[in-house]
């Protein structure tokens, strides 16, 4: 190449690729690629799926080395681009609306871009096998299989979760699915995260996010859902009397009648010895936790009090004494009022 001018204009340029109507985004970290806002807090690198969706849905092509590009977290939903965003960042020097947009790529860059897109095709093929976000992606049977709920029940529960927000990693629907999948299958958080396709390349981060989603759903359901379906607060004495049977009415009269019976749930063996001892039931020869169920004569579960350790002091009588003595629970006042 000696003797040739190093002048840019006369340097031989490799044949490139021009994409009409596409816009090339510079690899710069100072502004959000979607809205052009200056990067401060609440920004993140553009996740893989969002890069592809920017290209496919918004004709914005990020450089293959896009390590500097940033996006507002608010444009993301579960690692994907939100469907309702509009690109408002300005990538054009000229104000001319009629100017034909063109993205120019040198051949090496074009080659990398094609490889990038082929990888995207391959990733999309093996995307989350369980997709709870697109309601039509899973059948009614699959909803039931994984969550124990129908689609209608699943959707209804969403309204009880005001505190669970859609994050950049997972949606609110993902979070609810995580909770019920855990309850239904007892798979590990890592397995559930993987099934939902969260943080595909970072298993530990996926595990933590899945766990966090589980607990935030549990908290919201406990606050907003459980009180209207369990506990004395959800039923008046008159309503409870409708659950009397001829047997209970004959023997105990026409008043609210409750039946108390201890029940239990097997647990894993604890690695903590002294806790493990408290969980161990001599009677069953296994670790378990106990609950006192308060049931109406026709079998309707009014309340479930507990949990209690399962060592000998917590037999049915022991639990009842404990509830009467210490817990001062509403159930007792409720019964007194009715009597
Ligand atoms: Zn933005």
- SS element count, helices: 12
- In N-to-C order, the SSE pattern is EEEHEEEEEHHHHHHHHEHEEEHH
How many individual domains?
3
CA gyration radius, whole angstroms: 30 Å
Intertermini distance: 103 Å
How many strand units? 12
What portion of residues belong to β-strands? 5-15%
Describe this structure in words.
This protein has helices spanning 48-58, 107-125, 140-147, 151-158, 172-185, 189-195, 203-224, 237-241, 246-252, 273-279, 316-327, 330-338; strands at 17-20, 23-24, 43-45, 60-61, 70-72, 76-77, 80-81, 102-105, 259-266, 280-281, 286-295, 301-308. It is of the alpha+beta class. Strands 9, 10, 11 and 12 form a four-stranded antiparallel sheet that branches. A two-stranded antiparallel sheet has the order 1-8. A hairpin with a 5-residue loop joins strand 11 and strand 12 (301-308). Residues 1-8 have low confidence and may be disordered.
Provide a concise account of the structure shown.
The chain is of the alpha+beta class and 339 residues long. The chain has 12 helices and 12 strands. It has helices at residues 48-58, 107-125, 140-147, 151-158, 172-185, 189-195, 203-224, 237-241, 246-252, 273-279, 316-327, 330-338, and strands at 17-20, 23-24, 43-45, 60-61, 70-72, 76-77, 80-81, 102-105, 259-266, 280-281, 286-295, 301-308.
Keyword list:
single chain, 339 residues, alpha+beta, four-stranded antiparallel beta sheet, 38% helix, disordered N terminus
Topology:
Elements: E1 17-20, E2 23-24, E3 43-45, H1 48-58, E4 60-61, E5 70-72, E6 76-77, E7 80-81, E8 102-105, H2 107-125, H3 140-147, H4 151-158, H5 172-185, H6 189-195, H7 203-224, H8 237-241, H9 246-252, E9 259-266, H10 273-279, E10 280-281, E11 286-295, E12 301-308, H11 316-327, H12 330-338
Parallel strand pairs: 2-4
Antiparallel strand pairs: 1-8, 3-5, 6-7, 9-11, 10-11, 11-12
The structure holds zinc ion.
Zinc ion (ZN) is lined by residues 32, 34-35, 37, 72, 75.
